[in-house]
Amino acid sequence: IYDLASKCSVLLAKDFVHNAFTVILNEETNNSRSLYVEMNQTVITIYPRLKISKMYNFSFSEENCQVLDQSLEKNSTNSRQETNKIEVSNQKGVSVFCDFQYDLCTVTLAGWHHGISAGLFGTNDNEAGNEWMVPNGSFTENVQEFTQSWQVNKCSLVPKKEKPCPITAKQNICKVFFEESYSLLR
C-alpha cells in the first residue's frame, strides 16, 4: 500500500502479451480522477466522484463513438451497473468493479493473466521481488521513480483535443444519462 505521488495519468495494469485489457487512472480537472478501462475494442471511462460511466466501442481504423445502448455481446465485454456500483468484465477473465459509495475500485485477473501484465499494480506473478518493475524491465525501490515511470502523459496543462462524436452519438449520451431508468441523473 502506498500513496500515489503523481498528479498525472498513470498506467495501473496492461496485458503486454495479448493486449486483453488496459486500466489507466486519469487525472481530471478539479482534482478528481477517472478510471479508463479498455477491453476488446470497448472503452469504459468511470468517474467515481460523479458516479457515472461512459462506454464507447471503437474499431482499429476510427472511433465509432457508439454509446451504452449498443450491444456489447459481439465484443465479449459485459457491463453491469447498479445504483452505486459498476462492474465491467470480459470473457478472458478480467473484471473491473467500482463501488461509488466507498470510492473503491478493484481489478481482478484470472490465473492465465499471471506474469503477462505490468503497471503500478505490479507484474501479477506472485513474486514479491519483481513488483516494482519499471517499463524498461529494470527495478526500483523508489516510490516516486516507480510512479513516474508508468505515467502515460507529460502532465501538461493543455487539455487534450478529443475527436468530436457525431451529433447522434451525443444525443445517445444524453439519453443514457438523463432518460434511462438506471441513471442516477434521471
TrEMBL record:
Domain of life: Eukaryota
Protein name as it appears in the record: APLP protein
Residue stretches making up the VWFD domain: 1-166
PANTHER family: AGAP008810-PA, VITELLOGENIN DOMAIN-CONTAINING PROTEIN
PROSITE patterns: VWFD
InterPro entries xref list: VWF_type-D
Native organism: Ptilonorhynchus violaceus (Satin bowerbird)
Pfam families according to UniProt: VWD
Organism classification: Eukaryota, Metazoa, Chordata, Craniata, Vertebrata
